[in-house]
Specification:
about 10% strand; globular; 7 helices; alpha/beta; five-stranded parallel β-sheet; about 140 residues
């Protein structure tokens, strides 16, 4: 099972001129061999960016991506990593959702498709990252 980060899903949904093609290809490759999932934080972030009449859940079903809720252990890990980030002087551009996405992928999935590899590599050691190439 592979988790999907908000930025990659948004690339696909809004047709980002730099990343949509590579993000679509990356997600398509993953879907060909395993389940691709999003957690609660991704659903909330992406739904907030869409027209309110559009149901993200319907769109995800059409794409073959399913919802996998964050488990308690992942939520706890996210909180610990967020606290560590702040204690290291981390800036406010990182929100709790980033840590929830990373902890969900680390503890509940086999990998994360993301364009934010540096952050996830630093805070979620051992998490396999799949990074779409910019076209």
């Amino acid at each position: 099972m592979v988790a999907l980060d908000s930025s990659v899903l948004l690339d696909i949904l809004i047709g980002d001129p730099q990343y949509a093609e590579s993000s679509e290809a990356c997600v398509g490759d993953a879907l060909a061999s395993e389940d691709v999932v999003v957690c609660d934080a991704v659903v909330a972030e992406v739904q907030a960016m869409l027209d309110t009449s559009v149901s993200l859940m319907d769109t995800l079903a059409t794409l073959g991506i399913r919802f996998e809720p964050t488990q308690e252990a992942a939520a706890m890990r996210a909180g610990h990593m967020n606290k560590r980030f702040r204690s290291r002087g981390g800036r406010r551009e990182r929100v709790v959702a980033d840590f929830l996405i990373g902890a969900h992928a680390l503890l509940q999935c086999d990998a994360l498709i993301t364009r934010d590899a540096g952050f996830f590599r630093d805070y979620f050691k051992g998490l396999k990252l799949v990074v779409p190439k910019r076209t």
